[in-house]
Amino acid sequence: MALQFKQMLLKVDHALSTEDVQALVFLCADLLGKDVSRIATAQDLFKQLEELDCLTEDCQSLLAELLIVAKRNDLVRQLSLCQNSQCLVSPYRKMLFSLAENITTEDLKSIKFLLSQHLPRRKLEDNITTLGLFLELERMDKLSQTKLETLEQIVTSVCPSLRRKITQFKEKNGPGVQSTGSSYMSVRPAQQEQSPSYQVIHSRRMQMKRCSVRQVVEMTSPSDHASLHEQLSASLSLATDNDHFLSPPPHQTAAEARTENAAGMSLGLWP
């Protein structure tokens, strides 16, 4: 069975054109997690995917997905490959590939001209493809799932009709979206507010800051009380608005709490 699997991969390798191989390598860039510019053949790509257990005799779904995205459905039918419901190629990578498919040779020349001040001249050689250009922008940290500004600018200038592909991607897969479909920044604050441990830690920090203020006031000499009083007076009105940061403990009045709030702000212990 292992030999039959290798024979199938070899058959795919022989059936793919140079452009097909470049497409598959580009689509696997996120999975491989490294520079893919040195992968020249489908056999090299398959070896690396096998090493990562992304492509095995018992798991051929990735191969089917890659061939479908690369518009080689004929090979999928010939080899009776099936794709699972779970996709391994990222939506970001598919979006870039879709853009590249619709960028003409003349469009690519215009894009190279626009990027001539941003990328080294040797990187803009005549033989570089659109996919290769995207990879170079990623290496220069000018393109990623959360850095689409440069891509939007050049697409809008050269082929504005393709901008909708980027817009649709951003609407479905906004920056910071995790595999669960939830944004890290949008989930974390809610989790903190609902976490009892967070409330305890927050309360203890506030108590420590109160102690710090009391110690400073108690250690201040009478001759410095006037200066401290001026700072407290200047901050007292602001502290009144910030009472929710330091609600008074049972043994302390609201007026005393406001005074400590003002002292804390004057001394830089809290905003």
UniProtKB/TrEMBL annotation:
InterPro entries: DEATH-like_dom_sf, DED_dom
Highest taxon of the lineage: Eukaryota
Keyword terms: Apoptosis, Repeat
GO biological process, one term: regulation of apoptotic process
All residue ranges annotated as the DED domain in the record: 4-81, 91-168
Residue ranges, annotated region (Disordered): 241-271
GO cellular component term of the entry, any: cytoplasm
SUPFAM superfamilies registered for this protein in UniProt: DEATH domain
Entries under Pfam families matching the protein: DED
Family: Belongs to the peptidase C14A family.
PANTHER family, per database record: CASPASE 10 (PTHR48169:SF7), DED DOMAIN-CONTAINING PROTEIN (PTHR48169)
Protein's recorded name: DED domain-containing protein
Organism in which the protein naturally occurs: Albula glossodonta (roundjaw bonefish)
